[in-house]
Amino acid sequence: MKWKNKGHEFDNIAWDIAQNFKDKGKKIYIFGAGLLGEELRAIMEKTGCFAGFIDNNKKKQELGVNGIKVISLQKYLECGARGLVVITADRKNIPAITVQLDAVGLKEGKDFYEYQEFMKSVFPILSVYANDQVYIELAQICLTERCTLKCKKCAHGCYAVDIKSQDMSIKTAKESADYFFSHVDIINEFVLIGGEPFLYRDLDEIIQYIGKNYREKIVIFSITTNGTIMPDKETLDLCRKYKVTIRISDYSMTIRGLETKYRQLREKLENSHVPYTVSDKENQWMDYGFESVDRKGREKEMIQVFDKCKTPCREIRGSRYYYCVMARSVSDNLKLGIGKRDYLDLDGLKEGDKKILLEFQMGFSEKGYLDMCGHCHGSDAVKYPIPVAEQVQRI
Ligand code: SF4
Ligand code: SF4
């Protein structure tokens, strides 16, 4: 979307929904005390908006969940509680819960929302207009573009990067965090990524720096790894200290021998009490088409592709805030020189420019697209499935 009224793009709708939220005491009740509900609770506790759980499950009402009280919808209505209700139930149960809320006179879009819609389109706006806080779902620092693997369709183009090339300096890595957190109040997930981040010489220093200065603003602090490098004790101690989750991308279906490495890594993480996740090995990748698509600069088409895409993957690099980490890294790593100015400079933003950052985050910019969208399938990439982590050359 092109900026037409920069800094005021949401004014028409935002003041109403912000007032509605204020009228409800700026409280969020989460309908569904399951895993998704717990994820949302972690975010809402950071914002100070969490009011309680509602659930139809009698056992949860009786025992609570992780020490948190759970009430029935009936009880919620009887005790005169007020707040916005956000449904975090299984997708298949959402229609029935919507009917249940309708039946007691609650209105969708005023009294309740479905989780995905709420977090994507409503909460970031509420956060700025009602709480004066910038909320971001996901952002990352690419500490290094070097990698121990050379995956053919790496969405960051890391296969083209020489293993001896220069990493981001620790000064720039720290500055990136400083710029980002001087404008952002709460982020759901802040990721240290690569390439392979465990190749980064100053990893301990940056974990410590972010952990010490900004951990309070982060719900999930994570490192994404391909699992080929075993972190040492110092790194693991810091991960435990600052509650860093290690996200292991499982490529063992394609690359022989990785299963053993993953097992060893998992054991080490468990013994060190460091939280971790392992991606689904059955996953497929998508080919974004960065090397084959060419829209020949057709602006209308690029705007359409960008508007449909809605990638959540922001990147901070010094003071430059990139909407799409893939666009920036593929252009740099393949030396395409495309979209060099496609970022928001946080250095130029003042304290009162929260709405500009919100708008950029939601897809507004001067052009309404990124130059790399002219070389990308965008959301249609799902139509081009490819095997996970096929290697350019033997490792
Ligand atoms: S493991 Fe593969 S996909 Fe991940 S950064 Fe390295 S080359 Fe890219
Ligand atoms: S369409 Fe544009 S924003 Fe979306 S992934 Fe491709 S380059 Fe990034």
Quick structural gist:
The protein has 395 residues and is an alpha/beta fold. The chain has helices spanning 11-23, 35-47, 58-63, 73-78, 94-103, 115-131, 170-183, 203-214, 233-241, 258-271, 299-309, 325-333, 354-361; strands spanning 28-31, 50-54, 70-71, 84-87, 112-114, 135-142, 186-193, 218-225, 244-248, 276-278, 285-286, 314-317, 320-322, 344-345, 385-386.
What does this structure look like?
With 395 residues, the protein is α/β, with parallel strands linked by helices. It has two domains: 11-131, Rossmann fold (3-Layer(aba) Sandwich); 135-386, Aldolase class I (TIM Barrel, Alpha-Beta Barrel). It is 36% helix and 16% strand. It has 13 helices and 15 strands. It has helices at residues 11-23, 35-47, 58-63, 73-78, 94-103, 115-131, 170-183, 203-214, 233-241, 258-271, 299-309, 325-333, 354-361; strands spanning 28-31, 50-54, 70-71, 84-87, 112-114, 135-142, 186-193, 218-225, 244-248, 276-278, 285-286, 314-317, 320-322, 344-345, 385-386. The strands form three sheets. It has an eight-stranded mixed sheet. Helix 10 links the parallel strand 9 and strand 10 (276-278). The longest helix has 17 residues, at 115-131. The radius of gyration is 22 Å and the shape is globular. The mean pLDDT is 95.
